[in-house]
Structure prediction request, 410 residues.
Amino acid sequence: MNRVFKIVGFVVAMGVITSSLLIGMDVLTSERISRNEEALLQSKILDAFEIPYNTSNIYDTFVANVEQVDVTIEGTVVPIYRNPDTGSISFEIEGGGVWGPIIGVLTLNEDLVTIENVGILAQQETPGLGGRIVELPYLAKYEGVVFDPFVEVLKEGANAPNQVDAITGATSTSSAFQTILNDSYDQVVPAYQATLGGE
Amino acid sequence: MRKFWLKIQYTKWFNITKDGLFKENPIVVAVLGICSALAVTNRVENAIAMGLAVTFVVTASSLVVSMVRKVIPARVRMITYMVIISAFVIMVQMFLEAYFPVIAAALGAYLGLIVTNCIVMGRAEAFAVKNPMKYTFFDGIANSLGYTWILIAVAIVREALAFGTILNFRVMPETWVNWTVMALAPGGFFVLGLIIWGVREWAQNFEVAAE
Prediction:
């Protein structure tokens, strides 16, 4: 009996000590981590709007050049970032990939149909296959593609203006990305147009 | 001087360090932890970052295991190592994400997967749990630096052949055609295999089949 108590006591003590260490570490780093994530999002949007910046003035450049429009979708407020000079808009897209969520930024032309830029913020796809989704030469293929009626990611023979080539050897990631793009578009763009119309 | 050197050769800490770095190198001899050794060695900077992260985790977790070795109940020994190791890995991950987000992004999932790196668990069970803290410290440092130097050696060859650079400095002539295969997993296997062969040949470490 004594031995059982000893084991339980040890496990509890170990749990308390390690979790308090981790909570302490989280308190120390969480602010910086969320600031880094924000800076990554802002730099991707500035890239998409072709506004020059450097690593030390991301935040200031962003605030000075990008305006934010809050749109309510099913009760949650979603920020949409707008370039006042060109009228193009950027918003975050998110959905399930093969191994985990894929989070990215979609930038649309002022006509709200043509893709200006696609950026990836986070993904956990297979390295070397689906993971190639972060490569800029691949993402560049999405430039100029239109959501008319929807974006289609094809294994081969992408010719029409709404079609893009899939990543070779990564069919599941490609089709997941197609779903993410179209679902996000269908959710955000009508809500954005409604908000603009209502103003 | 010579006498001093001879004396050092018979100290325990010297032999522990030598074993970790060469004689019982975790990658070359024990062939542990090669998953990450293949995955993150396409760039020298990633290899260095991974090596440092593993060095911290191995040394810190071995020290803690050695510190509490007399109070760990034998039945929950493994789970104790696991909890200690995971705690340190999560701390490293948070630290890199907060202060070096670019490196954290380059290492990606492999950073979290240090938890499953056999070297960490291996040193805890094979050494830390039976030895006092001072020797455990040398053992942890030596084994993880043994891992790190092989990683860096593989990465130097791979980065030079795949991108023509080392630590982003151009080392190959402008006419060099990049070997893309070296940046991919097969290139890692080729180079790691050759290095293991080379080091074993040099150290005269041959495996003899049991009679």
Summary: Chain B touches chain A through 23 residues (CB under 8 Å). The beta strands of chain B are 165-166, 169-170. The first helix of chain B runs from residue 2 to 9. The first strand of chain B starts at residue 165 and ends at 166.
